[in-house]
């Protein structure tokens, strides 16, 4: 079928992606992509290398300001800022906005790593003006989260939140990066997932019994700061290179 024969935009996108290209088209497109990827890495490294110790906060972009998790994320970011850490978020609305707002109110560093998306994403007004970065590539953005974070605070969220969380756990589990705190906030939200990991994944021996120790589950801002402080009291803080 021709591109114009498809009824909706999603089918047209699939057809366009599957369209056969000449070797010259492939080589040209890939070459430009390499330069774009390099530019995003260079820009990210240059801007993020100066921010100091930070904690990343993840969660749903769809969470509204009147939601209890939005309000809790704001309190957590405020408390973390007062404890001396900067805050990194995905730069958008929802939990990300709450994280940057808490950092802003706490007088801390407030970083937004924005991503170009066809929906949901627009930068929030609580990011420091010189720390609002934009990315086209998810994988470049994820490198920035891990490379320059000393901890992940994971609020309730969807597939993107789970992706960030499990990638960090995998990198630590496989010793590709140094261990840092991964804190899940909201025991009622996360307990079903953890129970499934314990009763299915762990029993099938698809992870080691100690792997779940990489995760801490808490319910309030004081517990978040306590986990961070307990972990780092014996270390010198630095970017997780």
Structure report:
The chain is α/β, with parallel strands linked by helices and 241 residues long. The protein has a single domain (52-232), classed as Rossmann fold. Helix content is 47%, strand content 12%. It contains 8 helices and 7 strands. It has helices at residues 9-18, 23-48, 68-82, 95-105, 138-147, 159-173, 187-201, 221-232, and strands at 54-58, 86-89, 110-115, 132-135, 152-154, 182-185, 215-218. Strands 4-3-2-1-5-6-7 form a 7-stranded parallel beta sheet, with helices on both faces. β1 (54-58), α3 and β2 (86-89) form a beta-alpha-beta unit. It is globular and about 55 Å long. It starts with 8 loop residues before the first helix and ends in a 9-residue tail after the last helix. The mean pLDDT is 90.
Runs with pLDDT <50, length 5+? none
Helix content: 40-55%
Main β-sheet description = 7 strands, parallel
In sequence order, what are the helices and strands, one letter per element?
HHEHEHEEHEHEHEH
* Net shape: globular
Assess the beta-strand content as a share of residues.
5-15%
Q: What's the structural domain tally?
A: 1
Number of strands: 7
* Coarse structural class: alpha/beta
Number of helices: 8
CATH topology: Rossmann fold
Radius of gyration: 20 Å
Global mean pLDDT? 90
InterPro entries: LOG, LOG_fam, LOG_family_nucleotidases
Protein name: Cytokinin riboside 5'-monophosphate phosphoribohydrolase
Pfam families: Lysine_decarbox
Keywords: Cytokinin biosynthesis, Hydrolase
């Amino acid at each position: 079928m021709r591109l114009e024969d498809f009824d909706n935009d999603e089918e047209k996108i699939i057809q366009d992606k599957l369209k056969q290209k000449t070797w010259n088209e492939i080589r040209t497109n890939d070459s430009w992509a390499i330069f774009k990827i390099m530019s995003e890495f260079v820009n990210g490294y240059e801007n993020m290398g100066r921010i100091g110790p930070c904690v990343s906060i993840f969660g749903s972009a769809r969470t509204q300001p009147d939601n209890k998790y939005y309000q809790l994320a704001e309190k957590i970011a405020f408390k973390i800022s007062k404890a001396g850490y900067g805050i990194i978020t995905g730069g958008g609305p929802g939990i990300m906005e709450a994280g940057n707002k808490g950092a802003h109110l706490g007088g801390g560093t407030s970083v937004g790593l924005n991503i170009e998306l066809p929906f949901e994403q627009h930068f929030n007004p609580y990011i420091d003006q010189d720390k609002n970065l934009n990315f086209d590539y998810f994988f470049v953005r994820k490198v920035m989260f891990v490379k320059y974070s000393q901890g992940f605070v994971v609020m309730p969220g969807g597939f993107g939140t789970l992706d960030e969380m499990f990638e960090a756990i995998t990198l630590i589990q496989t010793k590709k990066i140094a261990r840092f705190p991964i804190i899940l906030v909201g025991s009622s939200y996360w307990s079903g997932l953890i129970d499934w990991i314990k009763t299915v994944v762990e029993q099938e021996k698809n992870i080691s019994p100690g792997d779940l120790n990489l995760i801490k589950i808490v319910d309030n801002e004081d517990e978040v700061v306590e986990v961070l402080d307990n972990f780092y009291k014996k270390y010198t803080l630095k970017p997780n290179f």
